[in-house]
Amino acid sequence: MPPDVELRLRQAELGLKAESWQDRLVAMSGLLALPESAMDKLLEMIVSVAKADSDAECRCTARGILASLNRDLADKAVSYLAEGLRDESRHLRGQSVVTEAEAMGELGPAAGLHSEELAALMKDTSSYVRRAAACALGRLLTAEPDPTEPLVEALKDRESEVRRGAVRGLGALGTVAAPHAEHLAKMLQKDTSYLVRRDCASALAAVGGKAAEQQASALSEAAIRDSDPEVRQAASKALAAVQPGTGMRLLIEALGDVEVDIRLHAAEALVAHGQSCGQAGESLQPLLTDDYAEVRLACVSALTVMEDHVIANNVSDIVDCLLRESDSDVQHALSLAIRAMGDYAVNQGNYLAEAAGQSGDARVRLGAALGLWALGTLAAANSACLVKRLADDSWFVRRAAAKALGAMGECSAQYTEQLLLEAARDLDDDVRMAALEALTAQGHVGDKHLNLVVKMTEDPKPTVQIAALLAIGACGKCAESHLHVLREQLRSKDPSVRHAVLDAYSLLPPSVPGRDDVQCIENIMRLDVRSDVQEAAKGVLGKWNKL
Question: Which CATH number does 222-285 carry?
Answer without folding.
Answer: 1.25.10
